[in-house]
Amino acid sequence: MNRRARSYPTDAFVDGEWIASATGRRFEVSNPATGKVIASVADCGADETRAAIEAAEKARYAWAARPAGERSKLLERWRDLLIQQSDDLAALLTAEMGKPLAEAKGEVLYGASYLDWFAAEAKRIYGDIIPSASPNNRIVVIKQPVGVCAAITPWNFPNAMLMRKVAAALAAGCTMVAKPAEDTPLSALAAAACAEEAGIPAGVFNVVPTSRAAEVGGELTSNPLIRKISFTGSTEVGKLLLRQSADTVKKVSMELGGNAPFIIFEDADLDAAINGLMVSKYRNAGQTCVCANRIIVHNSVMDEVALRFREQVAGLRVGPGDLPGSEVGPLINEEALAKTKRLVTTAIEAGAEILIGGRCHDAGPLFYAPTILKSVSADMDVAREEIFGPVAPLIGFQSEEEAIGVADETPFGLAAYFYTKDLGRAWRVAEALDYGMVGVNEGIVSSAAAPFGGVKQSGMGREGSRYGLDDYLEIKYMLMGGLTI
Ligand code: ADP
After folding, report:
1. Measured CA distances, 295 to 124, 261, 265, 268 (Å)
2. Minimal CA–CA distance to 172: which of 81, 75, 249, 251?
3. How far is ligand 1, taken at its centre, from the CA of residue 348, in Å?
4. Binning pLDDT at 50, 70 and 90, where does residue 4 land?
5. In whole angstroms, what is the distance from residue 160 CA to residue 108 CA?
6. What is the rounded CA–CA span in Å between residue 31 and residue 91?
7. Ligand 1: distance of its center to the CA of 120 in Å?
8. How far apart are CA 266 and CA 156, in angstroms?
9. What percent of the chain has pLDDT over 90?
10. Is the CB of residue 415 less than 8 Å from the CB of residue 294?
11. What is the pTM of this model?
């Protein structure tokens, strides 16, 4: 039986109300697979953002004062609604973002898993009592919510990147104003509709969609009521937000760009390595910050790896995300396509060879064929920049030391992967790599239970896991005196 898909709001969500922008301005959202406009969304500016911040400030006292168990129950209700509505939310996500429906559904469930995780963590925000040097007093440490938080999220995971911020913030007792990416505001608004339905109180979670990111970002970073900003996106914008947040000394969490090495040692299980590489590279058409960006392969197995990898890539089904069986969708927009084309062209000019792909795909104007480049060297742009497209550059190496050197030769430090069957090497290389996350014989590392985050110019702070709550908590020390008589 064909069920009518649920429809979700397109206005901003401020203080528990769905509002148009004060000027009535709206912006269009289109489906990257077809170019068709699918929605027109309230276009917020600094005024609406300020109203949302003030609503979040007003709501934060009662929210923080609620027993953790109550906050936890509300987060669980929100989780249940995301799961119940996951088919509709996935269809919406695919329509605005382009990823295959199965991946979109996986993302919604992954987003819900952060609510699940932090609903439980909310009840475990422990303090400490520390013996004092004086018998007259005790040192007491409690953890309190930071206050009003801002979230600025990217288009590549429009549901999950938001959920892992808001789940932790609300669990800690903070309130939030979220600004989704202009290409994909609909999933954030749909998540807010579920929050409302779950009974999250007015003002606790607000969403201000906009086509004017700099204006809204300016308000979020300069308003003194915002005590913390959590950003996922490019290193360039992250640096700007850090600078802008300096004047009001905000706490910051930054999940920025990556340039993930994927090392295949000569002793690796090649079947496992290629399977890991396929999901790491071509999930979301290569548009994730933890995607394998440089495939660093021992020279003695290079030909074998190239052959087997090519075979698998040749079998990938490229097409619109809502086409059953589709595995690689479109790129998000023209700029993304232009960047992918530039990186492939400059690599070829510098001596790389195309093993497969290397061109646009006829599924639609924003599709790029899954591509493998051979004979890539570490100094090419395709190896130095974050590709964010379905292009896999293969780089050869001779020694373990050389592989680590190539892997670390980047200002980024988000995720790294390597495959080996040698236990000693597994520990040596995992400890040596200058990255926040390392997959050893695994091509995907993300889960709500694990700390996600990078080092160097990939950012600061961790999301998910028990550590993820710390980013939304302040430590307060209280000296309890007058104990002796
Ligand atoms: P990408 O290059 O992948 O689109 P961006 O860093 O540009 O990554 O985008 C991530 C998020 O940052 C999006 O929500 C986008 O709207 C937002 N953004 C971009 N520029 C600014 C800015 N000047 N101030 C605040 N947010 C911004």
Report:
1. 41, 6, 11, 14
2. 75
3. 30
4. confident
5. 7
6. 11
7. 31
8. 33
9. 99
10. no
11. 0.97
By alpha-carbon position, which residue is closest to atom 13 of ligand 1?
181
> Which residues are near ligand 1 (CB < 6 Å)?
152-154, 179, 181-182, 213-214, 217, 233-234, 237, 240
The residue type at 8: Y
Give, using CA atoms, the residue closest to atom 7 of ligand 1.
Answer: 234
Per-residue pLDDT at 106: 98
Site to probe by mutation for ligand 1, drawn from 152, 157, 335, 388 as the one with most ligand atoms within 8 Å of Cβ, is 152
Give distance in angstroms: CA of 231 to centre of ligand 1.
9
Lateral strand order in the sheet of 138-145: 128-131, 138-145, 473-480
pLDDT number for residue 2: 56
CA distance 344 to 122: 47
Give one DSSP letter per residue of 21-79, joined into a string: -TT--EEEEE-TTT--EEEEEE---HHHHHHHHHHHHHHHHHHHHS-HHHHHHHHHHHH
CA distance 374 to 367: 22
Assigned token pair, 48: 């609406």
Cα radius of gyration rounded to whole Å, the chain: 23
- The rounded Å distance from CA 28 to ligand 1 centre is 17
* Catalytic (active site) residue 255: yes
Q: Is the CA virtual torsion 381, 387, 391, 397 positive or negative? A: positive
266 carries an active-site annotation: no
Please state whether beta strands 251-255 and 459-460 pair in parallel, antiparallel, or not at all (unpaired). Answer: antiparallel
Compute the distance from residue 182 Cα to the ligand 1 centre, in Å. 8
pLDDT in tens, 56-91: 999 999 999 999 999 999 999 999 999 999 999 999
Report the nearest atom of ligand 1 relative to the CA of 180: 14
Question: Which residue owns the Cα nearest ligand 1 atom 19?
Answer: 213
Closest C-alpha among 381, 311, 310, 368 to residue 338: 368
**Strand, coil or helix: 470:** helix
> What tokens appear for 392 in the block?
């896999």
Q: Tell me which of 237, 252, 254, 386 to substitute to probe ligand 1's pocket, judged by most ligand atoms within 8 Å of the beta carbon.
A: 237
CA distance linking residue 307 with residue 166, whole number of Å: 44
103-106-107 Cα angle (round to 5) = 90
Nearest protein Cα to ligand 1, atom 14: 181
Name residues whose C-beta falls within 8 Å of residue 239's C-beta, 6 or more positions apart in sequence.
Answer: none
The CA-based angle 216-38-291, given to 5 degrees, is 70
Q: What is the pLDDT of residues 130-146, one digit of tens each?
A: 999 999 999 999 999 99
DSSP for residue 85 = T
The C-alpha atoms of residue 253 and residue 146 are separated, in whole angstroms, by: 13
- Exactly one of 289, 291, 327, 400 is catalytic; which is it? 289
